[in-house]
Write a structure and sequence with these properties.
The structure is a single chain. The chain is an all-alpha fold and 263 residues long. The protein has one domain. Helices cover 69% and strands 0% of the residues. The chain contains 17 helices and no strands. Helix 4 packs parallel to helix 9, helix 6 crosses helix 9 and helix 9 runs antiparallel to helix 12. The protein is globular.
């Protein structure tokens, strides 16, 4: 399933909560967008994470993670375990995807849906749902999807990087922000997408997209308040990447099983 179908089906209807806004509320590392795309509440993390790492930028990030894992393993440990390089790479891919799914689930769990609707206002929620069915807004939402997916892929990888630092795991940087990898950064579609969105809004004589963007901007503060500083402060990289058992050491143990050496 391509990204457009996922965001058109799994992430609808509008008027619920911004997964991207929630992620922005949990980290100050990345700047907020002027517009963050479709409201996301009933997302399917498995499909969204798969889509995020299937697009060109996400594929390159995933490949870089696998490369870093391969560079970081203890060869003697691999030999003792009977793990081949191909098996190592496949397991590394699976681990990143699974931890990304957990991260989205944990971000979604911080959102108090009722509080968001109360703070944002039922009339604003209804207005967004009406606008969400407008053809121009649908086209606008489709145009922003590549940037949304790129953001999600980067957010996952950057939390893996922070986790590695905190747990003293021997993994070098992966994301362009950590490595200065210009070739990888060039694959991020965000700047191009944002420029296209500005053009779409400027060309819309009806003002529909301007109204939509204003409502989306107005949703940011209610979203932050619906999450709350207490919930956000309790979620470091370990908590974000933890599975349903909430074991913050599980990711560390998975990497050790892959023979990734501690520092």
């Amino acid at each position: 399933m391509n990204a457009s179908l996922i965001f058109a089906t799994s992430l609808a209807p509008l008027g619920r909560a911004l997964l991207v806004a929630a992620a922005l509320s949990l980290t100050a590392a990345r700047p907020a967008w002027p517009q963050a795309g479709a409201f996301l509440m009933e997302v399917e993390p498995t499909k969204v994470v798969a889509a995020a790492f299937e697009q060109p930028y996400g594929r390159a990030l995933l490949a870089e993670f696998v490369r870093v894992v391969n560079e970081s393993v203890d060869p003697e440990c691999l030999q003792q375990k009977g793990v081949t390089k191909d098996q190592l790479s496949e397991r590394a891919r699976a681990i990143l995807l699974q931890r990304g799914i957990y991260l989205l689930q944990n971000v979604m769990a911080t959102i108090d849906r009722d509080a968001f609707k109360r703070l944002f206002g039922a009339h604003n929620v209804a207005a967004l749902e009406r606008l969400g069915n407008h053809p121009k807004v649908r086209a606008y939402s489709a145009a922003v999807e590549p940037a949304q997916l790129a953001y999600i892929a980067t957010f996952i990888v950057e939390n893996v990087e922070r986790y590695a630092v905190l747990r003293r795991i021997r993994l070098r940087g992966i994301s362009p922000a950590s490595t200065g990898n210009l070739d990888l950064a060039a694959l991020d579609p965000t700047d191009t997408v944002m420029a296209d969105l500005e053009k779409m809004t400027a060309a819309d004589r009806s003002g529909t997209l301007s109204r939509y963007r204003k409502l989306m901007d107005a949703a940011r503060e209610p979203m932050r308040d619906a999450i709350g500083s207490k919930a956000a402060g309790a979620l470091g990289p370990g908590e974000l990447l933890a599975g349903p058992d909430k074991d913050t050491a599980a990711f560390y143990n998975e990497l050790m099983e892959l023979c990734v050496a501690p520092r």
